[in-house]
Design goal:
The chain is mainly β. It is built from no helices and ten strands. It has strands spanning 4-7, 10-12, 18-24, 33-39, 46-52, 57-59, 67-72, 77-82, 91-96, 106-110. It has a six-stranded mixed beta sheet with strand order 2-10-9-4-5-6, with no helix packed on it. Strands 1-3-8-7 form a four-stranded antiparallel beta sheet, with no helix packed on it. A hairpin with a 6-residue loop joins strand 4 and strand 5. The protein starts with a strand and ends with a strand.
């Protein structure tokens, strides 16, 4: 099964932007869907966004209009563009295919 590695996290001020990357160890061309999740300290992991084969996308209400998920099949990478970041977006972000393993994630901290 393809392995996914997240990167791109960091410290950003409220209102700032970050782009997360999810790099696959193999081709993602035939992977039906890839999703981003996040887990904030002391909270359960939650689904953030998903992209279906092609360009169909879905978002949690909390990030709709601020986050954009996309995929580059040629680079075997899925991205999460995060704009207008808020302190409540602080979390470890993970990407995952359905029923796939969880990776190490990438830390996003939104703070002034």
């Amino acid at each position: 099964q393809v392995q996914l590695v997240e990167s791109g996290g960091g410290l950003v001020q409220p209102g700032g932007s970050l782009r997360l990357s999810c790099a696959a160890s193999g081709s993602i061309f035939n992977i039906n869907s890839i999703n981003w999740y996040r887990q904030a300290p002391g909270k359960q992991r939650e689904w953030v966004a998903g992209i279906i084969i092609g360009t169909s996308t879905n978002y949690a209400d909390s990030v709709k209009g601020r986050f954009t998920i996309s995929r580059d099949n040629a680079k075997n990478t899925v991205y999460l563009q995060m704009n207008s970041l808020k302190p409540e977006d602080t979390a470890v972000y993970y990407c995952r295919v359905p029923f796939g393993p969880w990776g190490r994630g990438t830390q996003v901290t939104v703070s002034s």
